[in-house]
Amino acid sequence: MTVEDLRLPxxxxxxxxxxxxPGAPREEGxxxxxxxxxxxxxxxxxxxxxxxxxxxxxxxxxxxPWLTGHTERVRFLLAAQRPDGGWGAPGGYxxxxxxxxxxxxxxxxxxxxxxxxxxxxxEAAVGGAVRRGLAALRRWAGTxxxxxxxxxxxxxxxxxxxxxxPAVELIVxxxxxxxxxxxxxxGEGEPxxxxxxxxxxxxxxxxTGLAAGATVPQKMLHALEVxxxxxxxxxxxxxxxxxEGRAAxxxxxxxxxxxxxxxxxxxxxxxxxxxxxxxxxxxxVPCAAPVTVFERGWTLSxxxxxxxxxxxxxxxxxxxxxxIGPGGVAAGPGLPPDADTTSVGLYTLALLRAPREPDALWxxxxxxxxxxxxxxxxxSPTVNAHVLDAFGEYLRLAGGGGRNARYAAxxxxxxxxxxxxxxxxxxxxxxxxxxxxxATACCALALGEYGGAESADAVRGASRWLLDTQREDxxxxxxxxxxxxxxxxxxxxxxTRPDPQATTGATAGATETAVEAERRAAxxxxxxxxxxxxxxxxxxxxxxxxxxxxxxLYYPAAIVRAAVLGALHLARHHRx
Length: 576
Known about the structure:
By secondary structure, the chain is mainly alpha-helical. Helices cover about 50% and strands about 0% of the residues. It is built from 20 helices and four strands. Residues about 10-25 and about 145-150 have low confidence and may be disordered.
């Protein structure tokens, strides 16, 4: 089994053995059939279809060697190492997974045969991986003998330049402390320094508070593993029972659950949770599971927004509606409710013609915008775009008068805030995704439908940026052309075309010059042709890079496939 095979749950992989090879004929109904299969998979695999994580898997190797699948997790880490010694995506995205993998494998080297968690048999392979990983880390930190000042410029080793990943300011100091302890025991040289501008002060406060029995902020539970011994049975932490079975999660995170257990434990609901995740992924684990509402909301909304003809079972609609409470809904058990999952769920219900008043979102309103959750540091354009979707579609169905006037006013506030966050080149960036193509799609589509005439220039700017950044082969992508990012670009170009017949939205009454229309049409044609070569006959991307932000980058397979199917449907049936 290859590393790529392990990126999705085993049940999902087994169900896709009949997918046609690239270049297979695309009959008229192929997209609809693929969409039907995709929607069925949301019920068949309710925990979600997300890729496994080097970071999260490494933490289990280090914290829970007693857990079923330990050998498979070590093998996964060894197979996932890059030729340069690191792990993960390019640039600063490599730091956290590389630290986690090296720390885990160094812990494995230090284990005594016969102790809890039998050491991996191939000690030479583990040792070699540790040495190559250490060399990469020292090169990035600029401490390798002969290294230039600042190390490898492709990997920022400065807190201010690191990607805005959840809990990175806690995770890195924790991993460095653990790794430097292993290096001292193994005699592997000088300790690694922290990134410039980073210290362990905040981490120390978290550990002190936990040890004293303080109540832990719910958003902190997702990264509870950073608390070390203070996490074990911390009195301020209560596991969240899952809807089915005897399992309970800590912050929807396998690593957090292992840290809270503090050992093999007995018949614990948290151990049942860990065993369930390990069983689904055959050893390695994702950063978060289950992610039922998150996956269903994004998947169904991408399909519906693009007009893909698909029947959504009442079970999915009813489940989505039941999950959204007065305070919203969380992406996973033990996580705090958030405006992103809540707004996408509400928008999806509206698209399914089962609208719910989006009043739960008022809890996230600030003076200028909507926060992802209370106490958020920073702000997210895509979260605000999704809130605009939810409010705008609700108003489209319910009307804007009377008690709904507040929603109408909020759409203006959201639209203005999003326009103000647009970059000079016409794109947007966001804290929940690597790619500007995802952020730009979310923002431009929301503004195009619900942003009013004042948003027309912003939407046109987004289209110009997409036309200017298309690659020579017809694809789009931050690092390289990908099916996912190409799908976002195509959906944006096709769903924001000026519509002289429209009466609302940024494209109301607008027209394009012949030159502009020709350029858009050519870009869509090239992008469509290229996308067909990047997916199977059923719209499954051949390459699945992890581009979504969590503690590590991840790939949500069902969501990405929905975006691709939506782009294929639009390009086939709605060419400019």
